[in-house]
Write a structure and sequence with these properties.
Chains A, B, C: Keywords: 2Fe-2S, Dioxygenase, Iron, Iron-sulfur, Metal-binding, Oxidoreductase. Three copies of one chain form a homotrimer. By secondary structure, chain A is α+β, with helices and mostly antiparallel strands. Helix content of chain A is 19%, strand content 30%.
């Protein structure tokens, strides 16, 4: 149902403390996360191999985990190293451990074949902790399948309609046809809106002499990772030709991680590289994003209710759906490949 | 699952204001209702053909509707007349529109083939706005399949048991065998209870010299419409022979409209033609009806829970079930006819 | 899905008053219980044969029950003896009645073939009302299948991990291998822990000179009945050899009764035979048991959520699971026998 051999964002770094446990269900699998003594994040299946109890209700013993149902103890590789009532622990007694890489404040997890987990395949989101950029960590939870949120992010023509007072702008924004470029594992969307109004969230944090040229250029790649160069510059200052004079630039990083077939984790940050010594600007930008994403969640959740009323409903593709149709095909291609058991890295 | 080619009550007139939208799910289909500039009620599928978002979260633009997900615009026939990101709108881009007739404070909707929607087939409920009658508009929501409520309304022997302090009367009321007459699209039930106690709700609004002769004469027709001549007159004054001297007369109008397979809308009014210049009488009668219908809802919802525990449970028919067994057969006949694709008006 | 021909605990005696009705769903079947004039408990299917309404929303009429939907009246054998709208009641009009035996404050019910209901097969729990013993009645409700709770009770190695501050004791308790003896309809588990700490709940109600020898000896029999001789005596005073000098003895009685496939009734008492003139001791023991059983419920409910995430999850048997694996096999044997229609008493 979900792509296995790919990197998912499992958590923000700060969600996993030095002590204790952090539990989150990812692609339908309960996952226990914690930091070993050296700070490395460990990720194990949060379901004891014995009778299925959550290890996250258990106890840390150094870098090991004791299940507090019947006392089985697991090391951080997931191997059961102690079973109170017997001397020898059978070698097959273990829980799954997952490859994890912590990078730029995100904890990435590989739910599939660990042998295929190549850290070099993790998308670059360095803006999240680059000293030249500022952002705040965002997370919201959705009660819908992640693909409906992918759809949303792959078609920005919804901005003036869903987000008129936050990310939006004049409705003419929706008339722009973005260019959509096929990548191996997703799509690249490029949208330029020339000589347009400053959107509300940007007007609130920077003075502008008048109209702007605005861009949204992003890669949206499996499993559901958006990395975007966006921003605006005073009209006619050459932004489209590569000059960014007196611009407001952003590097939005967003990640959708399926929790179950009907729920999704959504991680996001929206780094900016201007006014980086003004925390109130960072907070204002973050707050606008949170408000906007709540607007998305309202319409997408209502959409989901409508779709649930009639499982036979067929969406009708319009021109603006080019990117999302391509992306859904790519997801299907990956799922097909995994179904066929091809031991092929999906990145 | 539900009869398509029939008139359902969709709303009370006052629920659909001059501005804005009113949304209600009917027979499993989300429906958007609003009034065009001339006051005519428009009913469209409340699910954008593009990606399924509810149009009711959108925006009025004159008599048109703008979906506030991606900005598609529909006219009041359901035709998409604008799609922001493209010049030409494909002709198949539309949502369903439903035939609607507003009559006597009820808004009737035809969920099936609009070509078959004959306004003359709408049951007469003129007492709801006849100046010689008075009533208040009632609505309650049920979490049960509508047929369980039809059953309830087709067998008034439940009155003394479910409604002892409202509609009821002595338990002998239940001993009366009503006559049940087969109509083309339902049944006519006639029940006379001679020389009986005044039921509590009527005793509260009118003085009575003693016992009464009481009648309940109603047509119950598909899809679930009850229209009733009921009342009582002092015993022996000839009501049964057609004289209604010093009587209290009512013309109950009730309509069951399936929301989903497990939930139902219930519209009702209980017009009376005495004391019409005393609003407190109208209010008292209405309040009694609301209390009584809440009593029905309690027992029917409990019944539904019991049925859900054992889907194989078979109800056992008794003599009192004559009307409801006939009505269920009529419903099946209509459903069969529609399944067989016979283009036959169901009225 | 559940064993039919066996005795289940349906209620504590005090739950069924002299007047009125008590309703509880048992093995998926709604059951109405009440006391006839002579105090005998009657148990009928709480679902009118007519249209399925709960009789428990009805009315007592002497030892009979009047359904307050349409007024059908049933005697305490479940036979319909009156139907308001007709003179003759058809002989097949009845609801199921269930064999019931009230014994030692528990009301036992037989959900299967009443002809097979042998009161002699009811497990002995006389300590619940023996004047030499004291206990308080306990009941909790679980939202899990009853077998997960059986599993819990069949492996006491969880005590130090789930109940460290109530029933527990040092973790070495979990290292003890109990002996497991096969009974015809269950298992007998015997666990001796020599020279061990007094568990917290016992330390709170009795003074101890030092370490103790502790025992838990119980029969766990279908459908889910635990009867336990447990306790502790000062170390080395010969408890293991049959001498119980200055001991604290208990006779725990526990019964699991499936409500539905995903919920369970849990009845329990924990009689003690020391300090029987000190109600505060009885209350303290009871309170410890309730706290401990809430601890069980927390971990088992979490386990259930984990299992629901992956129906294909296979539990892995360890040495400590000997008793529960045997018990599950016995349950399967009974279910198979009933599926094969063998008219065989399951006790």
């Amino acid at each position: 149902m979900f792509i296995q051999n790919t990197w998912y964002v499992a958590a923000w770094s700060h969600e996993i403390g030095a002590d204790g446990f952090f539990a989150r269900t990812i692609t339908g699998i309960p996952v226990l996360m914690y930091r070993s003594a050296d700070g490395t994040v460990v990720a194990l299946e949060d379901r004891c191999c014995h009778r299925g109890a959550p290890l996250s209700l258990g106890r840390r013993e150094g870098d090991d985990v004791r299940c507090l149902y019947h006392g089985l103890k697991f090391d951080c590789s997931g191997t059961c190293i102690e079973a109170p009532a017997q001397d020898r622990v059978p070698p097959q007694a273990r829980v799954r451990s997952f490859a994890v890489v912590e990078r730029h404040r995100w904890v990435w997890i590989w739910m599939g074949d660990a042998a295929l987990a190549d850290p070099d395949a993790i998308p670059d989101t360095h803006w999240l902790d680059d000293p030249d950029w500022r952002s705040l960590p965002g997370y919201i939870h959705y009660d819908v399948n992640y693909l409906l949120i992918c759809d949303n992010l792959l078609d920005f023509s919804h901005l003036p309609f869903v987000h008129p007072t936050t990310l939006g702008g004049p409705e003419s924004y929706a008339k722009i046809r973005p260019s959509v470029e096929r990548l191996d594992n997703g799509v690249r969307v490029t949208r330029w809106t020339m000589d347009t109004d400053v959107p509300p969230f940007a007007a609130a944090v920077k003075a502008w002499p008048g109209k702007v040229d605005r861009w949204n250029i992003y890669d949206f790649t499996i499993p559901g990772i958006l990395r975007m160069d966006s921003g605006m510059a005073p009209v006619g200052t050459g932004a489209h030709d590569g000059q960014r004079i007196d611009a407001a630039e952003f590097r939005g990083c967003q990640a959708l991680t399926p929790e179950t077939a009907t729920s999704t984790h959504y991680f996001f940050g929206h780094p900016h590289n201007f006014a980086i010594d003004q925390p109130e600007v960072t907070r204002a930008i973050h707050q606008s994003i949170v408000e906007a994403f709540d607007e998305d969640r309202a319409i997408i959740t209502a959409q989901q209710r409508n779709l649930a009323l009639d499982p036979s409903f067929n969406m009708m593709a319009f021109a603006m759906d080019s990117a999302l149709v391509q992306f859904r095909r790519i997801v299907e291609r990956y799922l097909d490949a995994e179904r066929q058991g091809l031991a092929r890295s999906a990145v």
